[in-house]
UniProtKB/TrEMBL annotation:
Gene3D superfamilies: Homeodomain-like (1.10.10.60), Tetracycline Repressor, domain 2 (1.10.357.10)
Keywords noted in UniProt: DNA-binding, Transcription, Transcription regulation
Organism encoding this protein: Nocardia yunnanensis
Keyword hit for Transcription: yes
Record-given protein name: TetR/AcrR family transcriptional regulator
InterPro entries tied to this protein: Homeodomain-like_sf, HTH-type_TetR-like_transc_reg, HTH_TetR, Tet_transcr_reg_TetR-rel_C_sf
Record flagged with keyword DNA-binding: yes
Domain HTH tetR-type: 24-84
Gene Ontology molecular function: DNA-binding transcription factor activity; transcription cis-regulatory region binding
Superkingdom per UniProt: Bacteria
Family annotation (Pfam families): TetR_N (PF00440)
DNA-binding region as annotated in the record: 47-66
Length: 213
């Protein structure tokens, strides 16, 4: 016995730690495989069996970690997309604090670049939102959470207009998503990224100004 811990206890602890690490690695591999499949094949056509096969595990193992495809897509969002976009709107909060139209235009250009970075996953996100009521709620919660990271912006609105302030941010998010889908993915809007950023700035810089008290 060493400091009150038997060799058996130590072995048991190591085995538990090893199992926990194996579970963590399997979960990580499932998320990575699902991300790859969703970006290359979309959401609807990918099956749970496809994700499990890509990792070399069984369907039963998949269900030890996730309840289904919406759950694994939620994990992808929570680990990558959601923290990234929240950071992006924290940045917007600081930009609006500056009151600078030039800074806002630069943010808008960065927003377009952000969508470019994540564009391969966006079709899967849209498909899941349309097909899965469970994931529709996840998407709704994600959009509604963005005003929460813009605390300085919200603080400049009167208490009786807080809902309006939040709605303006949510509408900005929605328009940027739809613009990018039509522009970069469907090709139905023919404009350069810089031109788009300029026009979007014309629309949204005044729309996000806080009212005079």
């Amino acid at each position: 016995m060493i400091q009150g811990v038997t060799r058996s206890d130590a072995d048991s602890t190591r085995r538990t730690s090893l199992r926990d690490e194996q579970k963590r690695l399997t979960r990580t591999r499932l998320i990575e495989a699902a991300t790859q499949l969703f970006t290359t094949q979309g959401y609807a056509t990918v099956r749970v069996d496809d994700i499990a096969a890509a990792v070399g595990c069984s369907r039963a193992t998949f269900y030890l970690h996730f309840t289904g495809k919406p759950d694994v897509l939620r994990a992808i969002a929570e680990q990558g997309t959601l923290p990234s976009v929240q950071h992006f709107y924290e940045d917007l909060d600081h930009v609006l604090d500056s009151g600078s139209r030039t800074e806002f235009a630069a943010w808008m250009r960065r927003a377009i670049d952000w969508f470019q970075e994540y564009k391969d996953l966006l079709p899967a996100w849209d498909e899941a939102t349309a097909l899965e009521p469970e994931f529709r709620e996840v998407a709704r919660e994600g959009i509604m959470a963005l005003p929460n990271v813009m605390s300085s912006y919200l603080s400049r609105w009167p208490a009786d207009r807080q809902d309006e302030a939040r709605l303006r941010i949510e509408l900005l998010v929605a328009q940027l998503e739809r613009f990018f889908t039509r522009w970069a993915m469907q090709g139905t809007i023919d404009v350069s990224a810089d031109e788009a950023a300029t026009v979007l700035t014309d629309i949204w810089f005044p729309a996000l100004q806080t009212p005079e008290r």
